[in-house]
Design goal:
Length: about 575
């Protein structure tokens, strides 16, 4: 196959223009192209409002080396044309593995892998283990995606939280109630990224996620994809159990080291297994504390905290595209980063075009926010997390779980500020409060809260931009929520972003807090075989500290499935 890169097409254009342009680049007639497919599509907005797509195609022709050699006589095409080196993803063939022992061993309960957590890491690990014939058991503390969706809607409507079934917990993981963003910075030498995207398409996602530079499915469509994936898992012999929280590990203590022997569920049931995958997600705090009691090797890691920031979507469209209404192109996204004078990084995360700020709490008395978009991205506001980097030096404890203590402190403050509702504030008011010098911090904070509740209500009447939230919200003062050093970095970052995107630091931009679940504050140690110091126990995905989004978590799930399959029946 020949790789044809940087094919430029003005928006809008027809699909038929692509093979025609590829044929011109190759110096052949379009009839000579036997087959072609899009590998990548990205937006070129350098001449906005005149917009273009840049495509990379894979093209099949007869005598491809001869065709390529002739085309490359034009030296200007040297960077555009080459032989494709893309390799299809290959899962290890367990039957041909020399270390695989008697097939009948794979039928025993002890040999069935257990996967804990049905987020993207757990789902993809389970799926590929099932394809390998290993009949995995998938345990999820929450509910199926359909039942979970009803619980989440009920929570947003009434404020009544189900700690086991919410935006964080349940089939599909935390990413289900986000934008379904599938872009990742993980290098894909072995084709795992493509395999993940192709699997999503197989279960109902649109084909464009295979080639868009910033693919997304949307919360509404991702739920359907997950449900379809579950049905095939069951047909492949997997056992999926909801409302099945793992409360303890059974460990075999031996002279040569510790080895996993199975798990105990919250109701006391024991499930034996020599291979347990911990795909627990970044919010499974009770599980992390249990793992600490088991003396599993882990450490605190950096992450980031901040606020959801809302802007009018047409403002973002105008900045990114040069037009307020992009039509079929869809709502514009952005990515911004800044390095502040104190050295703290500030950056956007989980940007949701045409989306909503959601109450993403999972613990009573604590409040966290996230963002989400439906597949149409048709909401009036855009939002993203604007977050400030924090390190273990910022945590209140040097404990491996110090980052969790830090998160909980912030979430408890947010809950009190909002009286259980999402606390929101205009950016202009927030910036003034951060810059205000207060002698008595305790009294000053009390006074600022009361003053800004009034100010916020007035702004609610006077300003056009209003919050787009899932869950109730209340106007208040957010300046006492984050540490002052984070507040200062946040304001400095917003100022820099205002130079990149006009209006980004506008007075009436809306802040919501607290964005505290950006990534796991914990990393569980694992070796080159992806096992922890407890042999047979595989930390996996975002919660374990090895991923940062749906796709990278799913790819990590594939990696762990590969390792287990290679060692199947070997104990």
């Amino acid at each position: 196959m020949i790789l044809v890169q940087n094919l430029k097409c003005k928006i809008p254009h027809s699909r038929e223009q692509l093979p025609a342009k590829a044929a011109i680049a190759l110096g052949i007639s379009q009839r000579e192209i036997k087959a072609w497919q899009i590998l990548r599509r990205s937006l070129d907005a350098r001449k906005k409002p005149e917009l273009f797509y840049l495509y990379t195609l894979e093209v099949e022709v007869d005598q491809e080396e001869k065709v390529l050699r002739k085309a490359l006589k034009n030296k200007r095409l040297k960077e555009q044309l080459s032989i494709s080196d893309r390799k299809p993803y290959l899962f290890p063939d367990r039957k041909k593995n020399a270390s695989n022992l008697a097939d009948e061993k794979a039928d025993s309960d002890l040999c069935r892998p257990i996967v804990v957590g049905a987020g993207p890491a757990g789902l993809f690990c389970t799926y590929y283990l099932a394809l390998a014939g290993l009949r995995p058991i998938l345990l999820e503390r929450g509910k199926s995606v359909e039942d979970r969706a009803r619980d989440v809607e009920e929570f947003w409507r009434t404020g009544k939280l189900n700690p086991s079934s919410n935006v964080q917990f349940g089939e599909g993981g935390a990413g289900t109630f986000s934008d379904g963003k599938l872009n990742t910075l993980v290098k894909d030498k072995d084709g795992r990224n493509r395999a993940v995207l192709e699997t999503f398409v197989r279960f109902g996602a649109k084909e464009n996620i295979l080639y868009d530079a910033k693919p997304h499915i949307g919360t509404d469509q991702l739920s359907k994809v997950i449900a379809a994936m579950r049905e095939e898992l069951l047909q492949l012999g997997a056992d999926i159990r909801f409302n099945a929280m793992v409360s303890d590990l059974v460990i075999d203590e031996k002279s040569e080291g510790r080895r996993i022997g199975g798990v105990i569920l919250k109701d006391g049931e024991f499930l034996p297994s020599r291979n347990v995958v911990l795909a627990i997600g970044h919010s499974a705090r009770d599980t992390f504390f249990m793992l600490k009691e088991k003396k599993l090797e882990m450490e605190a890691k950096p992450f980031a905290v901040g606020f959801r920031v809302e802007h009018p979507q047409n403002m973002i469209n105008k900045s990114q595209y040069g037009i307020a209404d992009p039509g079929e192109l869809g709502a514009a996204a952005y990515k911004v980063t800044a390095k502040t004078s104190t050295g703290r990084g500030v950056y956007s995360f989980c940007m949701c075009p045409g989306g909503y700020v959601v109450n993403a709490s999972s613990e009573e008395g604590r409040l966290a926010v996230n963002g989400m978009s439906y597949s149409g991205r048709s909401g009036k506001n855009s939002n993203s997390a604007i977050i400030v980097a924090v390190t273990p030096d910022d945590y209140p404890s040097k404990d491996p779980l110090g980052g969790i203590f830090f998160q909980r402190e912030l979430e408890e403050k947010a809950y009190v500020l909002g009286e259980g509702r999402i606390p929101v504030q205009r950016y202009g008011d927030f910036r003034k409060r951060v810059k205000m010098e207060v002698q008595d911090e305790a009294e000053g904070r009390e006074r600022r809260i009361q003053e800004n509740v009034i100010s916020g209500v007035q702004n609610d009447i006077e300003q056009e931009l209003q919050p787009s939230c899932k869950g109730e919200y209340i106007w208040t003062d957010l300046s006492g929520l984050l540490p002052q050093s984070c507040n200062q970095a946040f304001v400095e970052g917003m100022t820099q972003f205002g130079r990149q995107i006009p209006g980004f630091d506008r007075e009436d931009a809306i802040l919501s807090g607290v964005e505290s679940r950006t990534s796991s504050p914990v990393r569980i140690h694992r070796d080159e075989t992806l096992q922890s110091d407890i042999r047979g126990l595989y930390p996996c995905g975002e919660g374990a500290g090895y991923a940062g989004g749906i796709t990278s978590a799913a790819m990590d799930g594939l990696r762990v499935a590969e390792e287990i399959a290679k060692r199947a029946s070997v104990f």
